[in-house]
Input
Amino acid sequence: MINNFKPTKSIGLTKINYFRIMLSKKTKYGLKALTYLARHQNDEGLVSIGDIAKCEKISRKFLESILLSLKKAGFLNAKKGKGGGYYLIKEASEIKMVDVFRVLEGPIAMLPCVSLNYYEECQDCPDEKSCGLHKLMIEVRDNTLKIFRNHTLQDLV
Amino acid sequence: MINNFKPTKSIGLTKINYFRIMLSKKTKYGLKALTYLARHQNDEGLVSIGDIAKCEKISRKFLESILLSLKKAGFLNAKKGKGGGYYLIKEASEIKMVDVFRVLEGPIAMLPCVSLNYYEECQDCPDEKSCGLHKLMIEVRDNTLKIFRNHTLQDLV
DNA sequence: CTTAATCCTACTTAACCGATAGGATAAAGG
DNA sequence: CCTTTATCCTATCGGTTAAGTAGGATTAAG
Output
């Protein structure tokens, strides 16, 4: 095991769970890989999974699936066979954080009834427009979205 | 089972997980209970778990543990025995969302290295100050915090 | 002393995250 | 053509969590 996964921690009596709310390793690794690609692809052209996994200390097999997702999502492309590897399709400055997060992490909203892309009707709320929690979560979502839209991969390079 | 928990859903090829990032039922129920208390405690004085669970359609036993947490955190108090129940200690307008969230949901930051209350050094990042992801997450945290600090239970009533 | 409420500890179940395993496919180069 | 080396794909495992459940201990009113 390369990385110790510490989902919970106890401080005094209260148990903190970093598990939820927190960024998944999938997203973290994906961002690392994208950053690595943006840094190295110009020199050598193609970058292999093995290189990234080694340099960034990421489980190789896990990284495989992540890069595959990113490929399917249209961020990068791959060349198979000997001497193959991955390369970014877009410029780093054109890869928005919001898009990466949606692919790797999922919905940005904290409630389905507040999600732009994956909206789902609230089960136990008769009227969304008069729901205080709904309003609050809309506000949080909009602020987070704004930040993720204004940042690109270039900011991490 | 009172509430159907649908953690995952497939849309086309992509699997969406509402599980992470999303607000837990614990927090949702806790907020509902607090709102219920704020609405009803003036009339009858004490409000029992059973009443809240019934009206808000929440699993009674689960609600018990949530209210216990809220009591230990100092939001409300209880009177045991016949005719007993819960009552808010503070005014609804004095109960900040940020405090409720910290108790029920945990850290607000998306990374331990960005958490104000539960900071933990980043494992795979040599220098936090030069880390782009760190900066991004600080920005998200600050915006979310700002919103949660500016809202109170009164906004949900 | 019965009733009715909170308090407390432990357990169950389904799901997911992170990681692994094993092979299928594809391309380069001798 | 065949070996090597890379991505692609499916399936599974172990550990952990959220959500809910069970059963009783404690406390207080009437």
